[in-house]
Amino acid sequence: MTILIIGDVGNDVLKIQKNLQQLDLHTIHVFQSAYTAIQYEHLFLQEEIRLIIYDANLDVDNCEAHCREIEALCVWRDVPILLSTSYERPIIFERLLEVGIFDFILKPFDFFQLKTRIRIALKYYEETKKRKEHEFQLALDLAIARNVQKSALTPELSLSHIEVNGIYFTSQSLGGDMYCWFQLDHNLTAVMLFDVMGHGVAASLVTMSIRSLLKEIIVKLIDPVSVMKEVNRKIYELFSTDGLDSFLVTAIYAVIDKKNGTLQYVNASHPEGVMFGKYGETVMLHANSPILGLFPSIQVQAKSIRLTGWHRIILYTDGLVTLYPSQKIDWSFFHSYSSQTSRVMLRKFTEEYGLSHLPLEDDITVVSITTSL
Questions:
Q1: How many Å apart are CA 37 and CA 5, to the nearest integer?
Q2: What are the start-end ranges of the E strands in the chain?
């Protein structure tokens, strides 16, 4: 255990050293200033500094100079700093606390007071160290979970008559959005985008649970009405117990039929999708069914739209709507790249709105479906 003392070598510093030794703390380094200690950082590579005692003859004139040294120490070593001083003006104490002092040792020294302050500071250091180790491990676990969640996102689909691609940005390490699509046969392509209410680990667990069920349900049932009813039943069955009733789900599910030239969809209280035609004409895919997971069974309606020639369908989660709440989404952006692939268009959209760098309040997911039937 290493302790640093910052201050001019004199009676006060010697008394502090003596008292530390009486507490069986013997690994002590003394430096005249914070900057001198920082220059000798290489000496401490193998040592764990647990406490810094900063001895200062404070007054109004030199307070800010000492504050700058203390700030440098706080940046350099994330350990508690005890200020040893005889100066007791409250306004100065308040300023020193602002820059990072953990506690004060008032002169003349009282051994019991000094011992108590040091033990409290060392206990704080140990607790902080354990918390940071826990946070570091949690960050590693979240990074692994985030990679697992991203791996569940379906890769790009590119065929002669249909192209499907998506982008996904989380507001936290883990999110509640998910998309998937399946090429059911030569003619049928199924696409689903859903959003679990909430954020973070809990929403992510629910998201992954739903995602694990979808392929079997969609491949078996295909029909939008049947699929949505079954997904609702599963969500209610799994997550309607006490404490989990807040995990409701909005979703939009579409089946594109190449042979019959149709798009059939169900929108379960999800933000309305947008479908563009070749010349910019738009059709909104409005919500037509209730939210999923609130009731054990629901009435579901599907809508069918004719597809001839080129179309681009944009599906998204509500994070896109709240990205810039003071302005409406510029839907024309998605059509302006009609000559480009969905991948290029989504990359341009990401760059235009800086999605890779913005501090997001909600997850943002956008799926683009381009058809040429």
A1: 9
A2: 2-6, 27-31, 49-55, 81-85, 103-106, 157-158, 162-169, 177-183, 188-196, 249-257, 262-268, 273-277, 282-285, 303-306, 310-316, 364-372
Domain ranges of the chain: 2-142, 152-372
Quote the Cα angle for 178-182-184, to 5°. 155
**Both tokens assigned to 69:** 């040294």
Residues in the chain: 373
Neighbours of 296 (CB within 10 A): 11
pLDDT in 10s for each residue of the chain, 373 residues: 789 999 887 888 888 888 888 888 888 999 999 999 898 887 777 788 999 999 988 888 889 999 999 999 998 888 999 999 887 788 888 898 999 999 998 888 888 888 899 999 999 999 999 999 999 998 888 888 888 888 899 999 999 999 999 999 887 667 789 999 999 999 999 999 999 987 778 888 899 999 999 999 999 999 999 999 999 999 998 887 665 556 799 999 999 999 999 999 999 999 999 999 988 899 999 999 999 999 999 999 999 999 999 999 999 998 888 777 666 777 888 888 888 888 899 999 888 888 877 777 778 899 999 999 8
- CA–CA separation, 269 vs 298, rounded Å? 12
The pair of structure tokens assigned to 156 is 């790009």
Domain 2-142 CATH superfamily: Response regulator (3.40.50.2300)
8 Å CB contact between 319 and 366: no
* pTM recorded for the entire structure: 0.75
* CA-to-CA separations, 173 to 166, 244, 282, in angstroms, rounded: 19, 21, 35
Q: Which fold has domain 152-372?
A: Phosphatase 2c; domain 1 (3.60.40)
- Sign of CA pseudo-dihedral 321, 323, 329, 334: negative
Which residue is associated with the tokens 């940046």?
75
Q: Spell out the residues 6+ positions from residue 257 whose beta carbon is closer than 8 angstroms to its own.
A: 187, 188, 263, 264
What angle, rounded to 10 degrees, do the helices at 63-76 and 90-99 form?
A: 30
Place of tokens 């040592």: 47
